[in-house]
């Protein structure tokens, strides 16, 4: 069980300025609709408030608390958001935050609590097999010993390699990925010191060809909005699990507690999913656990801007330094979603998935 973990938060006391807690309102992706909906300043760019208060992803105390919580909930690895190499011309984060400088501390804190640290390779302008190979050379060279490892395939005698999730893999073609991930590809990492377990997003049913022919080792669905894509629709997970077993691929259906990003994307209300006092999350978790998949990914531990976090939340007291206090939502109790995770994950780990159909 893996959880997506975001390293882009900062506070003035640690980082010299606010990072992501002051997230800007994002314009609509369609230009015509963007003109009809002028941008406005955000008052509080999240619907929930962290029980820890706004924090820095570079705070040792925060990291220690987070990974202790993950370990107690049965989460095996945190998938760390990575926005690009320190020498890259641009980062993938819309707010311009570089997360590479937080990876080492996060990986060390994770290891101290018996939690792994995988990488979430975010898309960036100009991403191509050549640049991704440089990314992997950098990541494995800089952090390889600290990264979570698992076998390339669910069954068989495969080596354990660092795990890298590739977000929005469809931005590149299957031919592009084959150059990098297939043995014998023009830029292949297979069998090199920088080889990894590469797990691609799968949004549309047609992207199975990209996963298979691009030589990925598995796939995940990411979105916490049930029904938003083919991949994020729970009723499709059993057939995806069967397809993965037939090819000996990892399949990680992604589950979330709900979705609400209307503070940063006010035009995106159609994607909102109410938490239903934990019922939405519990149902998604159970669907993933009984799908026949060999893995589960949680979206997310702490993506506060999109309202997908399972991290403890509580309404702030007045005067806590945050605007729009009365509009913050709350859980039934702060650890509610960690407790749901712990209970369902414990059952999942005691149920062996079907063998790969080799």
From TrEMBL:
<dbReference type="GO" id="GO:0000139">
    <property type="term" value="C:Golgi membrane"/>
</dbReference>
<protein>
    <submittedName>
        <fullName>Uncharacterized protein</fullName>
    </submittedName>
</protein>
<keyword id="KW-0812">Transmembrane</keyword>
<dbReference type="InterPro" id="IPR026071">
    <property type="entry name" value="Glyco_Hydrolase_99"/>
</dbReference>
<dbReference type="Pfam" id="PF16317">
    <property type="entry name" value="Glyco_hydro_99"/>
</dbReference>
<keyword id="KW-0378">Hydrolase</keyword>
<keyword id="KW-0472">Membrane</keyword>
<keyword id="KW-1133">Transmembrane helix</keyword>
<dbReference type="GO" id="GO:0004559">
    <property type="term" value="F:alpha-mannosidase activity"/>
</dbReference>
<comment type="similarity">
    <text>Belongs to the glycosyl hydrolase 99 family.</text>
</comment>
<keyword id="KW-0333">Golgi apparatus</keyword>
<keyword id="KW-0735">Signal-anchor</keyword>
